[in-house]
Structure formats: C-alpha cells, structure tokens
Amino acid sequence: MSTLRFKVVEEAFKREATPITVPKEFPSEYFGKYVFNRIKMSKYLSKDTMSIVIQAIDEGVTLPRSISDHVAAGMKMWAMEMGATHYTHWFQPLTEGTAEKHDSFIEYVNGSPLDSEILERFSGKLLAQQEPDASSFPSGGIRNTFEARGYTAWDPSSPAFIVEDTLCIPTVFISYTGEALDYKTPLLKSISAIDKAAVEVCKLFDPNVKKVYSFLGWEQEFFLVDQALYSARPDLMLTDRTLMGHESAKNQQLEDHYFGAIPPRVVSFMRELEFEAYRYGIPIKTRHNEVAPNQFEFAPIYGETNLAVDQNLLVMSLMKKIANKHNFRLLLHEKPFEGINGSGKHCNWSLGTNTGVGLFTPGKTPDENLQFITFIVNAMMAVYKHNGLLKASIASATNSHRLGANEAPPAIISVFMGTQISAVLDKIEDTSQNDTITMDALKRMKLGVAHVPEVLVDNTDRNRTSPFAFTGNRFEFRAVGSSANCSAAMLVLNSILASQLTSFSKEIVEKISEGMSKEQAIFDTLRSYIKESKSIRFDGNGYSDEWKDEALERGLDCETSVPLIYDAYTSPASIEMFRNVGVLNSTELYARNEVKWEVYTKKIQIESRVLGDLSINHIIPVATKYQSALLDNLYKMKMVFDKSLAADLSKEDASLIEEIATHISVIKRDVDAMVEARKVANKIEDTREKAIAYHDTVEPYFNVIRYHVDKLELVVDNEIWPLPKYRELLFIN
Known about the structure:
This protein is an alpha+beta fold.
C-alpha cells in the first residue's frame, strides 16, 4: 500500500492539534486592536476632524476632501506605530472576492527622482482616491482592456485595518465614466435608498426618526479537509469541490456530527480564528459542528450591513490562511460532495431606527405593532414582486448544486411567516374594520421537570425548507451560498424594499389627500398588499414535489437554469426598480450579467476539463490495470482447472471484467462527447448563449460520467484506487 493515496491518508491520521498562542487578556481588552476605529481616531485625530468624520459616518454627510490630509496623517501615524510599512485600497471587484495592490509609504523627500533621501508619507489624496489600473478585472464590457483607467475611492463608513504590514483602506471601485465595477458601490447606494424610503414611512408613526439602518448577521458554513488529502485530489485543488467519488457508507445519516463535540484539531483552528477576528473588531459569537462530517459554522453578533459584509470577506480570508497553519484546507464551495450537506451563508436581515426600534420586531403598543406589520407586509410585497430577482442574486454555478437538494432552500423563493404572523395577516385581510393589532407575548412551556425552568416560546417557528423566513425580529435569507459576497443579496433586498416603501408612502399620501384618516389609509393599503402578495407566502415543506407544482400555479419564478435565472436582473421591472432607487443603471445591470454569464461558463468549463482529465488519465488506467489482473487470474484458472470447473469458479471474475469494461466504455464515450459539446459551445460568441449552451449541453455529462466512475470505485481494488475516498476526506480530523 505505497500509493500516494495511502501515504496522504497515513499522514492525515497522524496529525494532532496545532499549538496556538492564547492571549493573556480578555477579548474585550484586545478587541479591534488592528482597526482604526473610533477609539483610535479619537487619539490620532483632532477633535474637529474627528467630529466631521463621525458626522460623515453616522449621518451620511459627504466628507470634505480638505479633511482627508488630517485623517491620512493620523491614520499613517497609527499604522506605522503598529508596524505597517505599506498601504492598499481594499476593494471588492466582480469576482466575489477582494483585491488589493500594496504601495509602501516611502517617497523622495522633495518628490524628485534626483533626491537621495526618502521619508514616509501618506497624503489625503492617496487616502481618498487612487487609480489602481485593475484592467483585468471583469467589467462586462463597460471598459475595454486598453481602457484601463478605473478609480478606487475611500469608504469612511468602514474603518481601515492592518493585515501584517499593510494598512488596508476599504474603498469602492468605479470606472472612468462612473459606473460601479464592484459590490460595495451599489450596496452603499442601496443602504442610502432604504434609509431614505424607510424614514418616510417611519414618520407616519414617529416624527423623531431621522435615520434607518440596515443590519446583517451572517452565518458562515464551511468544510475542513486535511491538507495532504486535498493535495491528492486534483478536483479539489482546481475547482474546490469533488467532481467524483462514491459516498461513504456512513456520512450524515445518523445526525451525530451536528452540534457534536468539536474535534481537537478543529477547536485549535477555531480558537485561533476567533482570536484574530477579535483583533479585527469582528465579534464572532458562535461556533459549532454543522450537519455533515467535517462541516462547521461561525457566526458573529449582528452589525451594520456595509461593515458586516466587509467583516465577512475579511473572515473568509482569515479562515483560509489560518486553516493552512493547522494543516487544513478550507472549502467554501456550496456543494463540495454529492450526497453531503452543502454549505450556505444564511443572511439574517433587519432594519432599525436611530431611536432604537427594530422595524421587524413586534411592539408593545398598538401603534408600534401597526408599524411592525407595515414593514413586514411591505417586505413580503417586495419579495413577491421581485422573487425572480432575489433568486438571481444568489444563483451561481456552484450554488446550483446545493439549492433544491433536500438539504438547502429550494430554487423557488417563498416567504415563511409562521402561525401567529399569518393569523394577524389573515385577520387584516378578512375584515373591513381597522382593528387594534396585538401580538401574543412569549408563551411559557412547562416541561414537567421540577428543576428545569419554564421555556419561553417565540412568536414564530422556524422552517428550514424556506429560502426567506421571518424568524421573530428579522428575515433569514437562507439561500445565499457559502462562497458568495453577501452584498449581492443584500443590495437587492435593500433596493426592492426601498422601492416598495416609496410606493407605499405615495399611496398613503394620496389616500389621506382624498379624505381618509392616516390609520384608515394604512390599513386599506396593507389589506390590498396582503391579498396581492398572498401567493408568496408558504409555510409548508419547500422540498416537496407538490410545492414545485403549486409554486408554478401561483406564478412564482420556478426557473432552475442559472444562466436563465440571471435574466431577472435585466427584466423591465428590475431595470425600472433599480433606476428609481438610484442603485444601478441599465448599463451596469447588463454589464453585471455579462460578467455572471462569463463566470458561469468558465467555472463549468474548468470543471469539465478537470473531470475529463481525472476520468481518462487517473480512473480508466487504474480500472484497466485491475481488469488486466482479473483477466490474468481468469486465464490462469483455465490453465489449472478443467474447463467445466474453471468456468464455474471464474464466473464472478468474468462478470466483473465485463462490468468494468462497460463502465470504462461509457466513461470514454461520454468524456469524448463532453469535449465535443464544449468545442461547439466555445464557438458561440454571445456570452449569454454560450452560458446556456454550457448549462444545457456540457454540464449534463457531469452526473453521467460521475455515476460510472463511482461504480468503478466500488469494484476496483481499494489498494490501487488513486483518489482519497469520501470516508477518508470526511472522517479524519
């Protein structure tokens, strides 16, 4: 057993938990150590400069360029005291990840190449804006390669931080002509849009509301695979998911991994990640085993949406780096293993006012509850109008393996409201009276065990099969993929609700002008919304085939082809909505779809090439070698035994030889056909049509080829099988 597979399995089995350095202080004492937060600003900025920056962050006031030099000086002083020698504008191109180009602080003293001395300098101009070139980032045709100019501009609402020796400054990324080339720009616009629209509605209930915040609490799921095993799987190395392999006899069916004791090696990794996250001001609150073996989750305390997105991207980067130190490889692919639970990133979304009121939280008075129902119903209406767009915001080549797989939300967007909220909505719909809205207090559940206290029951249950569920004081968007940038989903949620609230405000104003009281106008409008959006409400099993049929009858978007799902971005309704709220224009929307189709094609193309290579150059030679051994054994049996006995004794070998030959033949045939389909698709110039061709004519071969490879894994001698098997990938900690 000297094959590479057995060597790496043996290496993985021998690993122990990596020692870590535990901070001597409590987390509260070093929280935000690497972040230029308000505490640091108050120390390194003047009182006047600090006041202007805080006003810009809290109230959305444009920061004067004249103040940038003062901020840059204080930021550089802090950064250099922390050991930084470089700075970078840290931005989020349309690649789902982050980008950075490091420059040192050094400059010639007098700015002339004839100088012989240097000093460290960082001006407000360098802080506020840069031209990083970045011509190779996808732009969807907004600019050609020879039109390289693009700008990054400082986002003061997200604090700068230090990674190793580099000061990282969160920025937006825009083209020379002003179009957004990133995720942050439209996210910030959507945050501004929901603030403006929601404040107008809040003023119907409380004139003291001046600002509404969008909040996000993400739950990051991931897999950990031993580094040695990862290196022996070309599919993991090149695509971050396994493209073949028979499922282990034991995987997650006993449900013994979920919330189980965390393995020592993983605990060591988690602790170090938490220590680092705290230093970056990221309040990681929860860690636990997820459903599948070697699947885990981190979740922080809620935060303001823009900051929460930046923190999630930073955590994803930290997780990969720290996992490597612990001899793991971190997988963020949404569906790493066939038959194994996929990884998502549940995005818990809520709104809150500057007066401390949660707009998705039931109130204590009838007026507060009317405001609560107003926002709940408008959110439901927004999802009803734009359910296809919401699905497009989370669709990807990798997430398509996960959605609808009886382990994640289905590829149909519906809203779960729970029994009590649904009853309130039904009551409003069915009566012409403007009754007082009351919400039941938390119920008390007595367990009948003397020493166990009563359990308080929330006013809504959970529905794990719902992609968009109300969970008591927030909506949980469960369909977001593990590797995704949360911005894609959050900017859509903020935008569609901003659009809907604007329409609501106009209707209320019109009805009041016609003589209705404010309360009558609100109830009348909510009643019509509840009736109109009823088809989006579904509290049942989203995994069932019956629901798919019912959803189609209800008129919901049931498309499952990712390239076609993207069409929702450029539908007339979406273009109008995004334009009206000022988040994205039609040029930007069409460009983003071009990028999405191109990325989809490239991912399927890469997976197709890797699958073909593994099948032809790894699996078939091994299967043929084992088949030859069986043939040799069959020949020798015929030489030793008489014809009748030899035929009887070699019956199983003969059958196995035939089975192997059949699988090899089908694999070779389908790999060749897949290659030809790829060649045909590659001739298509239109980006959308090429993506559709890859979805319709290339990707269908994946499961067929995999099926026959997996069958070979079951019959070929275990000692010569070249790839680490699922039982080895998933059960070695």
